[in-house]
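Dear colleagues,

As part of the handover before I leave the project, I'm documenting each prediction I ran so the next person doesn't have to rerun anything. This entry is a single chain, and its sequence is reproduced below.
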Amino acid sequence: MTLLRKFKTVLQTPIWTLQLASGAKSFIDNPIIGSRRLNALGLHRSRVRVAERMCRWRRKRLAAKVPHEWREAFERDGFVVIQNAVPSEDFESLRDAILSREWPAREMRQGDAITRRIAIDGEMLAAVPELKRFLKRADINALFHYVASYRTTPLHYVQTIVSSCVGEDPDPQETLHADTFHASMKSWLFLKPVDVEDGPFTYVPGSHRFTPERMEWEYQRSLVNAQAIDRLSARGSPRIDEEGLTQMGLGPAKALALPENTLVVADTAGFHARGAAQKPGERVELWSYARRNPFLPWLGGDLGSLPGIADRRMGWVWDFTDRFGRPWHDAGLRKPTDD
């Protein structure tokens, strides 16, 4: 190790150490998190266990406001499916207003798929009152909070996924994976029907639970040389195959082919994927995301959820990604379903 590298290591070590008490997950960007010696002593397993216990404690305090049938479905499967989520008199107006207008968009290519995202900000909420009513609903937000295990306002986007459109490389999102080692909420409100051929959201039922078998799997993966596995797994979003699912006593993934106006809310600490599209096409949805530090004991305290800030966050996020956020790039004004 050169003198300069030693100096950098000394400077960065306090930061790497503090990240142990955060949602940091990369085994290659943080040599303490990725230390096979420390993980053999139980470092990663301990972080997972503490995060899981804190999550259960927070969810217990959030459970009362979630309809029983939704809570029961989530505890069983790790996701909730709600058909006709938007009142029928609102859904058509909501969908048409969003799809017929151009909005500032960003795009990213991964393998043979393009993902386009349009931020749901104050301007869109003012232009589409039906959308604002849906996102302000107490029961929907109670479910978001319960799955995320925090009272936090998710980031909301209009998302379009165009499959089988560029090149021949596989889309990495089509491989079963967990987003991270702790609770993370994502949701999809489908603006158009999603058939099996379109590449539907796919989830392994029950895989959100950190059973003894899942804990052992987490321990074993923490001992693998991060330089010898795929990049996304090494950075803390582990991929899994059928053998791994069998080791954890889990069944096969379930593809959720669903009609329009269906909301899916899932904990993406469970194993999930974007289904492999069997034909060129597009999936259009309202996509929401929430993830916080998994070790905090309180339920709120999220500055980004404060009135006057929550609706403006997306502009700040886009400003940041425009400067530093490759592979996302500014696509200009686009309709969600533009070519």
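The domain at 23-292+304-334 is CATH 2.60.120 (Jelly Rolls). The chain has one domain: 23-292+304-334.

All the best with the project,
I.
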